[in-house]
Amino acid sequence: MGTKAHIVRETAARLRFAFNGAGGRGLPGLGPLVLVLVLGVLAIGFGPSTARADAIPEEIDVVVHPSFPGTSIDAARLETIFNTTLRIGPDGKPIIAFNLPPEDRLRAEFDQVVLRMNPAEVNRYWIAERLRNGHRPPRQIADPMLVRRMVGRLPGGIGYLPRRLVDATVRVVARINAGKVTPP
Question: Domain ranges in the chain?
Fold first, then answer.
């Protein structure tokens, strides 16, 4: 995998070739415009909002719908919920797990601590599960605030959020901090 600058240079070179062609034919004037737009999007994607490896890790709270039974969930139970082997709660109602996207750093930390897998391993796991057993991964939601809203509205809902986003619409049943699952 190349550096960010290398990726940008390689993308720019491919776009120049695609729009100018091998013989210099292409769409006059359009190539530079598209090139500027694509490079701008790439620059935004690699900007300061991109998670850095040296960033201070954020504490993660595992949250459930307020009616979810029990006061806490341990690491082993979380693993069975998020690998979808446990789909029915102790009250007999379906469990609806929500995940952030694979590229989200909270998701990567959650998967590493709870499932004990890195993003590539998680991806391979779900491909195998789908082929062998027909199991689907937890529902994926791109925004932690939407995860909070969905968990708060759906009995049986469970997800994880940065601690700073937890409010009264959900209940905390576990915390992930310093690579460990702890009670709330």
Answer: 4-45, 60-182
CATH topology of domain 60-182: D-Maltodextrin-Binding Protein; domain 2 (3.40.190)
How many whole angstroms separate alpha carbon 100 and alpha carbon 16? 35
Burial of 97 (0-12, 13-18, 19+ CB in 10 A): buried
Give the DSSP letter string of 121-165: HHHHHHHHHHHHH---PPEE-S-HHHHHHHHHHSTTEEEEEEGGG
Residue 57: partners with Cβ closer than 8 Å, 6 or more residues away: 109, 178
**What tens digit of pLDDT does each residue of 11-64 get?**
555 545 444 544 445 444 544 544 444 444 444 444 443 444 445 568 999 999
Both tokens assigned to 17: 């070739």
Contacts of 25 (CB under 8 A, 6+ apart): none
